[in-house]
Design brief:
The complex is a heterodimer of chains A (585) and B (404). Chain A is of the alpha+beta class. Chain A is built from 26 helices and twelve strands. In chain A, strand 4 and strand 5 form a beta hairpin. In chain A, helix 6 packs parallel to helix 8, helix 10 runs antiparallel to helix 11 and helix 18 packs across helix 21. Chain B has 404 residues and is an alpha+beta fold. Chain B is 22% helix and 27% strand. In chain B, strand 9 and strand 10 form a beta hairpin. In chain B, helix 2 packs across helix 3, helix 3 crosses helix 4 and helix 7 packs antiparallel against helix 9. Chain B is globular. Classes of the chains: A alpha+beta (585), B alpha+beta (404). At the A-B interface, helix 16 and strand 7 of A face strand 8 of B.
């Protein structure tokens, strides 16, 4: 086992000190810089040290943090803090997470959350369930009972067994606080709070099995494999069963790995993993932290019916649609662009203009209802949902360009260049110009500028096909009194309207290929490199052979050696060095 | 901004994979005598307030005085010195330690056999403070008694210019600041508007469905006015969200079907039987109208607005305001509650009590607004039977004593 010790400077058992914060900051900064240097494809890294394999140190995402706390301590534990916006890199937050450090403000938040969580876990109402032993005295230290608790919980938080030194350190904290406060549980609370702000918890560590040498591929150790699997498939830390499998070496053989993956794919927790991946791919973090071109910010003077509830439900609608089609029904991925099956709430029904009676008493949350658009309905597929058409619009105006760009970049993995800095959008944004009453007319005039024409040719022909949907996602047939022309074209395939566009995307090989590339990058935690290209190509072929089934693709990735292979090119500090340096902090 | 006008033509309803049966059921509950239905527009009531067409100098003696003066006068009428009455009001308004005692004094300003009683529970025990009454020419409403311009104490409707409009409720409310409306004020009467807006997400919605051959043309229509099991949703501006879905309350007490006519986009009723709607106990506990009239304009943006009126038991109007007691009197409504009681009682113009001769109903007109909605039967319930048409000829209505 190659996991490294990181004996952090300890705060006072009773109150946090500046020492811990500064130490953590220093560590976080070091980790960040090391990770940036080490991660293949990382921005600013001219000579990546890791030639293949996953990112070695990755900060927990907010959702992973929440999910781990819920899994380990129960879903009724309030997090009681806020998370900083994540960083998107190469189209995914999962890649950006490998470059994230922790700022002083974020550390304050982690500290506050840790103390709040620890206090709830060791609260009188929960301690009997949470603590696996009864102390000899509730008003004194009990190192034996403390060890039981710390070892059990620590393994779930650190995603591996604690080393003896780590255990002694945490028991020492519990002991000292218990003695000072004459409260055994206060000691456990302090020790747990300490673990929750440790880098071993806040960062995903992917340690390597055995020594690593330049040019010689190595592989992740068993616990790192367990973490890799669990975060990919369940968006959370490994559970005890998976850790036990790692302990018994069952993840080191292909047969054992496959058996474990199959078990995980059959778990209801797979939905968490799938939701996390598509939330990342579809930029849904921009719902919480509005991004420039993707957000649910609406001018409520123009769109008064777009409520916060609509925004919250819109994201959930798409995730439910995807999970239902891809996991529950084990459907063809391409069908997500044409499916007429979805889920709605009354708030969404009001925007979509469809009848959706309540099924619960007034004042209570309304259960989601399965809904099927009728044949001939202009809506079909996730591109017609509010989470796409409203998400990629201006606050006061629908945008064929933003929608077209999002489709190219998020769904087809085709990069659209940013607009030139000095370009004027006045003509496009002016909906009162009597000469250009529709978006098609305005964009046509805008494209007369040759600087703009090239990129707009990529975006507008597909975006204009979605013009039947206003900025709030409601259906319309006219703009400024003029009938809307929704004819469009995607790479020489002509169509009309959203349903035509959905079919064109579903039939475009770029769509499933993009999913494979994105999922491979998501699993690796970095952009696939040249060395990964053969693997990604094989994944694409397998996806086609498996009739575009997502569980099959996940299985291919999760059981692939490439997911766990680490290759150091010797140019910068090796992954082992990173961990060792971290441990010295 | 609302979307395009919703035209729920059978066969061209929005996708109804789940609810097509509901659409059919809605049509099936239409009375048999209605014309073959080919177009239906459905609405949820988004605004309900007293219909007020207030004009400058339309109040005899001006608008009612500020409540402090009104209450001071009432305490003086009870025999209190003006100085003490003013001090009592000052103490109440100041909210200090003496406020509670002053509040009790104000609350118990009624007298029964010389003993203090709660003025809001026993408004008749308070000497009539004589609220000011409207004496203007105009009022929204309808010619309820059928006597036209010959109807005593009647108004002229400012929109239709119909003469003989019976709306004594406007005469009662029209001089209280919080019940006055445009053109004398900028906004609709604030009391009902604000209270309705505040309460509407928490009580079952009222629904209106208009059905006819072609609602873009003049012709007969069927008008259903019902209550929902569901509350309204609010949009981002705090207004009623259009295009939400409402289940019809199967309780037959709130199911009303009228025959009507649409002319130039304005729906009116051609039969005028009773209407019964259960409402919110805090504000409009019931809406019970006889000789029901409606004038509803279907607006191009898909909304609807207009007035509904008839003769209504005046205790039904007084009770929710009276129960609001001192909070309504000096806060939201800003009207002297015993004074309101006396005004309603004195201006009531219909349904005399056979024994006392006291009129029990008052002519009313209420302003309503509505936004498009989907209306479906409650699942698992049978469509409510239409209310039997009431006898057209009501007993002769009396003229209220004391009318101007």
């Amino acid at each position: 086992m190659m996991h490294k010790l990181i004996p952090l400077p300890r705060r006072s058992p009773v109150a946090p000190t500046i020492g811990l914060a500064s130490a953590c900051l220093a560590l976080a900064a070091m980790l960040s810089s090391s990770v940036q240097a080490a991660s293949a494809g990382g921005s600013g890294s001219s000579a990546p040290s890791v030639a293949a394999g996953p990112a070695m140190l990755v900060r927990l995402s907010p959702n992973e943090y929440r999910q781990i706390v819920a899994d380990v301590f129960g879903s009724d534990i309030a997090i009681g803090g806020r998370f900083a916006p994540e960083i998107r890199q190469d189209g995914l937050l999962a890649i950006g997470a490998g470059s994230e450090s922790i700022t002083a403000d974020e550390l304050d938040q982690y500290q506050a959350m840790a103390q709040s969580i620890a206090a709830q876990v060791l609260d009188e109402s929960r301690r009997a369930v949470m603590v696996p032993c009864t102390p000899t005295s509730a008003t004194a230290s009990d190192d034996h009972c403390a060890r039981n608790f710390i070892a059990e919980v620590g393994e779930l938080l650190y995603r591996r067994p604690l080393t003896e030194e780590e255990l002694r350190t945490q028991i020492g904290i519990a002991h000292k606080t218990a003695q000072q406060t004459r409260d055994f549980y206060a000691g456990l609370q302090d020790s747990l709070g300490d673990m929750l702000v440790s880098p071993q918890f806040l960062f995903k560590w992917y340690d390597v099995k055995g020594p690593i040498k330049a040019g010689a591929p190595s592989t992740l150790d068993a616990y790192a494999r367990a973490s890799k699997l669990s975060f990919l498939l369940w968006d959370s830390a490994p559970n005890q069963e998976l850790l036990d499998a790692a302990r018994r070496g069952k993840l080191n053989s292909q047969k054992g790995l496959a058996r474990q993956v199959d078990s995980m794919l059959a778990s209801p927790r797979l939905q968490n993993g799938v939701r996390a991946f598509f939330s990342d791919m579809l930029e849904f973090q921009c719902a919480d932290f509005p991004c420039e071109d993707s957000n649910f910010v609406k001018d409520t003077t123009i769109y008064p019916d777009f409520t916060p509830q609509v925004a919250a439900d819109a994201e959930e609608q798409t995730l439910r649609t995807l999970v239902d089609l891809l996991i529950t029904r084990d459907g063809d991925y391409r069908d997500v662009f044409i499916t007429r099956n979805t889920f709605l709430t009354p708030a969404l029904g009001a925007i979509y203009g469809v009848p959706l009676p309540r099924t619960s008493p007034n004042g209570e949350p309304t259960p989601w209802q399965a809904y099927a658009y009728a044949p001939g309905d202009p809506r079909a597929g996730i591109l017609s949902e509010i989470s796409f058409v409203a998400f990629h619009s201006h606050p006061g105006l629908a945008s064929a360009t933003l929608r077209g760009r999002a489709l190219r970049e998020d769904i087809l993995c085709q990069k659209v260049p940013d607009p030139p800095p000095n370009v004027s959008f006045k003509l496009v944004m002016d909906t009162t110009n009597p000469e250009y009453k529709t978006a098609r007319e305005r964009l046509s005039a805008h494209r007369s500028n040759p600087v703009c024409a090239g990129c707009h040719r990529l975006m507008d022909p597909i975006g204009l096909a979605m013009e039947n949907f206003d900025s709030d996602g409601s259906f319309r047939t006219r703009e400024n009194g003029v009938p809307i022309d929704t004819s469009g074209e995607l790479d020489r395939v002509k169509f009309t309207g959203m349903t035509g566009l959905g079919k064109a995307v579903a039939n475009d090989p770029a769509a499933p290929a993009c999913l494979v590339s994105r999922l491979a990058a998501y699993a690796l935690g970095r952009k696939p490199t040249k060395g990964d290209s053969a693997w990604v190509t094989d994944l694409k072929k397998a996806f086609i052979a498996d009739h575009y089934r997502l569980p099959a693709l996940l299985r291919q990735i999760a059981t692939s050696d490439m997911l766990y292979r680490v290759e150091w090119n010797g140019a910068t500090p090796s992954p082992t060095v990173i961990s060792t340096v971290a441990s010295r902090q | 901004m609302h979307g395009p006008m919703r035209l729920f033509k059978p066969g061209s309803w929005p996708p109804l994979a789940m609810f097509s049966a509901g659409a059919i059921a809605i049509l099936s509950i239409l009375p048999a005598k209605s014309a073959p239905a080919s177009e239906t527009r459905s609405y949820v009531v988004s605004l309900f307030t007293n219909a007020a067409y207030s004009t400058k100098d339309d109040c005899q003696g001006g608008v009612d005085p500020y409540h402090v003066q009104q209450l001071t006068d009432e305490l003086v009428a009870l025999g209190m010195s003006r100085a003490k009455a003013e001090k009592t009001l000052e103490a109440y308004e100041g909210g200090g330690p003496e406020s509670a005692a002053a509040r009790d004094m104000i609350t118990n300003r009624g007298r029964v056999n010389g003993k203090p009683v709660n003025a809001y529970v026993n408004p008749a025990a308070v000497i009539d403070p004589k609220l000011h009454w409207v004496i203007g020419r105009y009022a929204y409403g309808f010619n309820l008694d059928g006597r036209g311009a010959d109807s005593p104490n009647s108004f002229e409707d400012p929109v239709t210019h119909e003469m003989g409009v019976n709306n004594q409720l406007f005469r009662v409310f029209g001089c209280a600041t919080d019940f006055r409306g445009p053109p004398a004020t900028l906004a609709t009467p604030s009391f009902y508007t604000v209270e309705w807006s505040t309460l509407r997400p928490s009580f079952p919605a009222w629904l209106i469905t208009i059905t006819g051959d072609d609602l873009s043309k003049n012709g007969p229509v069927t008008v259903e006015i019902t209550r929902s099991l569901d509350h309204v949703l609010l949009n981002a501006q705090g207004n009623t969200e259009p295009n939400a879905t409402f289940r019809i309350d199967p309780d037959p007490r709130s199911h009303n079907v009228f025959q009507g006519q649409i002319n130039d986009g304005v729906v009116t009723l051609t039969d005028h039987h009773d209407l019964h709607l259960i409402g919110d106990p805090v504000l409009v506990s019931r809406l019970d109208l006889s000789h029901t009239h409606l004038r509803l304009t279907l607006k191009p943006n898909g909304d609807a607005e207009g007035i509904i009126g008839g003769y209504q038991p005046w205790m039904e109007i007084f009770a929710p305001i009276g129960h609001g007691a001192i909070n309504f009197e000096q806060g939201q409504a800003g009207v002297d509650i015993p004074g309101l009681y006396w005004a309603l009682r004195n201006l009531a113009d219909a349904d005399p009590d056979p024994k006392t001769g006291q009129n029990q109903s008052i002519s009313t007109a209420w302003a309503i607004g509505a936004v498009p909605a989907f209306i479906v039967p409650a699942q698992g319930t049978a469509p409510p039977p239409p209310v039997q048409l009431a006898v057209e000829n009501k007993p002769q209505r009396a003229t209220a004593p004391g009318s101007p």
